[in-house]
Write a structure and sequence with these properties.
The protein is an alpha/beta fold. It is about 40% helix and about 10% strand. It has a six-stranded mixed sheet. It starts with 13 loop residues before the first helix and ends in a 48-residue tail after the last helix.
Length: about 270
């Protein structure tokens, strides 16, 4: 049981998510959820936060800044379910926060198990973010195993587009991007304006190392994907993720054999 465990919010399955959306539409009043601020207002807030927090403020200070400036309902945490450090850190100060899981249909069994453990043991609301088509529907429309023929299009359809649609309902999202993960991420700021998705993007653990992440997870008895200790320092969809040799780039196992290094969420 995690030290962060408290009230349980189960994973939102597709049918249940639809029902919840309908209920929200039917029952919400103007006071239930504040209207989202304009892009100009949010951009200014992102600039202010970046200036206040600098390059290496502690994760708790970054999250405290968010808690002071954003309503809980306007904030989401993106989590790949490789570990639960980011959801746990945010939930310590913003219990009940939405945690978005990109349900591509291609995850490892261990990843789904970690998602369920996070939902059961942390003070968060895990929400499955679904693409427009199931894997079977996509196979019928575009041919079987699109990931093997055009990984970029597969990621765009099953990750980038669904997340963008979902983020339209928020003012800010947290990510677990770290500067030590890959050369493409070495300049990751703590707070920035996400132009592509139209909201503030916050990376509280940008300055952390992989070892710090593991240590925090161990110290706080957090759920962790067992694949992390089996040669998978970066975990994505099962067909496109391979084990990494000791000492190699942590993301070398993602889309191995191709020149693709990012799924498109953080570029």
């Amino acid at each position: 049981m995690s030290k962060h465990a408290a009230g349980v919010d189960p994973v939102v399955e597709p049918a249940a998510a639809a029902a919840q959306v309908e209920a929200t539409v039917a029952e919400a009043s103007p006071a239930a959820a504040p209207a989202l601020r304009t892009h100009d207002e949010l951009k200014a807030l992102a600039e202010s936060g970046a200036a206040e927090l600098g390059w290496d403020a502690p994760a708790r200070d970054v999250i405290a800044w968010v808690e002071r400036n954003f309503d809980l309902s306007s904030v989401a945490v993106a989590c790949s379910m490789a570990d639960a450090v980011l959801p746990a850190l945010v939930a310590d100060q913003m219990p009940g926060v939405d945690v978005l899981f990109l349900e591509t249909g291609y995850h490892f069994p261990e990843t789904y198990a970690t998602r369920d453990e996070v939902a059961a043991n942390l003070r968060v609301n895990v929400v499955d973010v679904l693409p427009e088509n199931t894997v079977e529907q996509q196979d019928r429309l575009l041919g079987k195993d699109l990931f093997a023929r055009d990984a970029a299009q597969c990621c765009a359809l099953r990750k980038v587009a669904p997340l963008r649609r979902t983020l339209a309902g928020y003012e800010l999202w947290f990510t677990g991007v770290r500067r030590d993960e890959a050369p493409t991420r070495t300049n990751t700021p703590l707070v920035t304006w996400d132009e592509a998705n139209g909201l503030v993007k916050v990376n509280p653990v940008a300055a952390w190392t992989f070892d710090q992440l593991v240590q925090y997870s161990d110290d706080n008895l957090l759920p962790v994907n067992p694949l992390l200790s089996q040669g998978y320092p970066s975990i994505g969809c099962q067909p496109c993720t391979r084990k990494v040799a000791p000492g190699d780039d942590p993301r070398a196992g993602r889309w191995a054999g191709s020149d693709k290094t990012e799924c498109g969420l953080h570029v």
